[in-house]
Structures are given as C-alpha cells and as structure tokens.
C-alpha cells in the first residue's frame, strides 16, 4: 500500500510551454447540434485551394446541396448566430433549405478570406479580358465536381443560389455548368456594371463604390472602413470634387480596380465583354434557372431582367427559364418582405416566395422523387394592386403610350397642341454643380444600411418643389392605370453647357389622405427612376460633347415596373440633372473623362425641356388594359 501511494502519476503532463493555439483550427464538438460542419480547402484545376464551409444536417443521407460562392466571408455567411441549431445558425434566407434537409455550402471565391489565389473583382470569364486558365465557371465546376465525389451524405445533385455578387457567381457557373448542377437561383445578380447595376447607371458613376472597393480589395479579408470625418456624405463628397479626387483623398485611387474603373468611363469593350447577359445569351441554356430581383433593387435593378431576357430566347419550351420580381430592396428576397420604408405589402412576401416558389423549384430538380413544381414562367408582385401575378412572359407589353410633359407642369396622354406661344413650349431650370440635387433628404447617410436599403421608396416630395427639379403631374386618375414593362424616356432638351445628366423619375402620387395609413397622404413613391449621362446620347461607347443651346433627343429606358396607379392617385414625372452624392456630378462642361474633371470644369448651366411640336418630351408607358 505504501509503495503504491508513492508511485508517480501514470498520465503524461502537458508541457508548460506547449502552444495554446493549435496549428489546425479548433472546431468545437457539440454532440447536441443538429448539424455537422466540415471546413475544407477544395483544390481547383490550377492548384489553388478554395476555402469551403459545408454544413450537413445530422443523419443526412442522399441530401441535395445548395452552393453559394461569395466574396463576403464564407465562415461568416455560414454562421449568422452561434447555435446548435442549423436554422438559427445559417442565414435567414436559408430557412427553406434547412427545413427541407439540404446540405448548405458556402465557399470563399479565389483570393478572398480563407481561399488562396488572386482576387479580381467580378473576375471576367476566360477570353479577351481573362488570359488565365480559370474563372468563376471553372471554379464552380471544380467545386461541384469535388462536392459530389466527396460528400457521402449527398445525392450528387447541386443547386446554386445567391444574391448580388453571389448572384453573379451563380450566373458565371451557368456559362459552362457541371452536369451535377441541376438548378440555379441568381438573386439581385450583378450582370452589367455599366448599364444599370453597381458601378454605373448609363454612364453616371456611383460614388458609394469607392468605399466598397476599399472594403473589398484593400485586403484579402475586410478592408478598412473609410472615415470621412463629416456626418453628411453630401457635404463631404461635394468638398472632395470629382470621384477621382474623392478616391485620392483616401488612397483608393491606388487600388487596381479603382484604376480600371477610372480608365473605362464609357461602355467600351471592357464592360461589353463582361456583361453577363451578352455572355449567357450566346451559350446554350442547360440549367433550369429562376432569376430573382426586387422591384426597388437599389443596387442591381438592371441586370436580372437583362439576364432573363437574354436567356429567355434560348428557352424554346418556356419551361426552364423563370423570372420572379418581388416588392423588395436589393437582396430583400432573403429577409423580411413585409414592407419597404413606409410601403406595406401583403405579409412577408419574401418568406412566402422562398417557401412556396423557390423551394418547390429546387426540390423538383434536386430531391430524389420530389414532385414537379408548379412554377410559372414569370411571377411578379404587382405593386399598387399588391398581388402576386403568374405570367407567361415578361414584359407583358411593348406597346407604348406616351405620357406628355406639358406647359403648366401638366402631364397627360394628349399630344401638345400645335400653335402654342413659344414662351410655353419649354421649361427651364438652372442646374448648378455647386448645389446638386440630393438623392435622399440631407443629411445624407449613404453608408447607413437603414437609410440605404429602402432609399428607392423614399418620398420624392422633398425634391418636387426645388427650383432645379421640373415636376409634371397628371389629373387624379378616374380609373386605375397599369404599366407592365419598361417605361421609355423621350426627352427633347437643351443646355447652355456642353454636357449634362438627365434624371427622370416616374412617380405614383398618393391621394391627399390615406385613411388606412395617414402618413402616406400625398406620398410620392418612385416607380421607375434612372439617370442618363448626356454625352452618351449617340452611342454608349462614344462620348460626344453637346452643342450649347441645341435641342437634342435623349432616349433611355427606365427600370422595369409592374404597377397599378390606383384610382384617385396621380402620376408624376420629375426631371433634374444631378442625383448626389450617389452619382458623381456632371461638370456640364465636356471633358474627356469626368473622373478627372477639374474644379473649374464644374459650371452652372440652364437646361430646357421642350414640349413643342416635333419636340414632344414624354415618358412612354407600357400601358396595359386592366384585367376584368
Ligand atoms: N451589389 C453588391 C455588388 C455586387 C457585385 C459587385 C459589386 C457590388 C453586392 O451586394 O454584392
């Protein structure tokens, strides 16, 4: 007994200097969790390994997989909350996948967060702009190939979904899809950075991108936040000068992607060759696809429709390519869709869509033995009427009815009469780059999500009485009026300068009083609004100076709308020449590259909008007779 007690302890001791942080990352084991997480580095064909987080429901067998490829940190995208429950841990929009037993996969795109390799912003496909052997199509292909061979709990079928940049990577995968990629849902996808998505709208640059570029490309992980030291973004951007001056102030002009943008202000081959609608429209349609977008998508309101339209031509049976438009902000499909700003809808339209439309669509193609889903070619939430509509095609009409801008701030469907006195044949305003029209009421907090996300639904009343905004309004409608398609601006205008921007806003004016929601009395809700940089009027790739005082025609499409202007409402059109600081200012003096305009180039100009015979400015509306 004595001997035994004196014996040294049998178990080895941990050396005091053993490193307390292990070389391989610690993953807590939680036997109570309803999932298993696997973190793997998946090798691509060029040897680069991509960091991939795979969340597998515990006990899964023959489960399908949903893959998202992200520049926004796969680890974080896979962990909204720390929780033993997959539903609480994953993103809100992943609710349906969890409820239906899917394996959820997030992967960092090459060069970002945990992935190896070089990052190139929205890396173009191999071809004229990409001389490497890899792109998002090959990376998606290699990833899917690895997943189906290595995830034993899967049934070998993969779907891809994701919004915005993650929607762009979904579309890229469709350029050359792996055979196991069975269905795709690109949401709010960035498709054409110049025409009307993130970087520019019709040539006008979106200044908020400068901080995005710093955040995304200054480092492999999170880049630095930009601290302007000025509460009002309007004030700061105005003081900064041109967009390149703004960038220079923080060194952002040294970042490669900012240089690329500044070198390509026009719609040249750099932008044209990477526009995904052009790319996908020229390849066979192989994968059932549901393009999803929000009606008030403040970031990518152009591309999803363009990608749908380009690929729809390939869908000869009208059964593979679908479009869904909900009453949402950018990426709103993945969050609560009950309202946008003060505008309310019929319940949580986003959860409803995910549960009743998107999941059955994925299930049909991905789940063993799942029934065929009843997916309409087009599903559109018709705003104003506030009803989901199942449609055969989009747009519903391309027959346009011009709504004329008239003397006396009026708007109606009758062509302006000939013979009106010359003084009533145009309206003018002074557009002063020193006092640009704000895009939301000041102080502008452009980087505050709560302000930014719903901004397209902002009450336009704050602008309608500015002397540098022309406002035209119809009589009260005595019957509802439905538009379903893209309104077309047809503006006859002149300027005393040699360049000009034209912002045109189609607005639904609510009645003076709204009994059910008093704060909407007189509300001016933007239905379709956009900007056009005048120098591109004769060709998007051919900037040309405007001859001072010469009347020219500016023709451009507004974003898609499916809207009913209700009886008792009025239609309004506002015309202005700046939308600041979201869009950089046009100096109104023609310079070769607006990014590098000098302070002296920014000059006041008098702009005139004509409503004279032969110069009938109008917004042409895709009007439809209302269904009985
Ligand atoms: N709209 C964002 C974006 C996409 C692509 C390029 C740049 C920005 C996004 O929300 O991801």
TrEMBL record:
It comes from the Bacteria. SMART domains: PepX_C. InterPro entries: AB_hydrolase_fold, CocE/Ser_esterase, Galactose-bd-like_sf, Xaa-Pro-like_dom, Xaa-Pro_dipept_C, Xaa-Pro_dipeptidyl-ppase/CocE. Residues 359-620 form the Xaa-Pro dipeptidyl-peptidase C-terminal domain. Pfam families: Peptidase_S15, PepX_C. One of its GO terms (molecular function) is hydrolase activity. Coiled coil: none annotated. Keywords: Hydrolase, Signal. NCBIfam families: CocE_NonD. This is CocE/NonD family hydrolase.
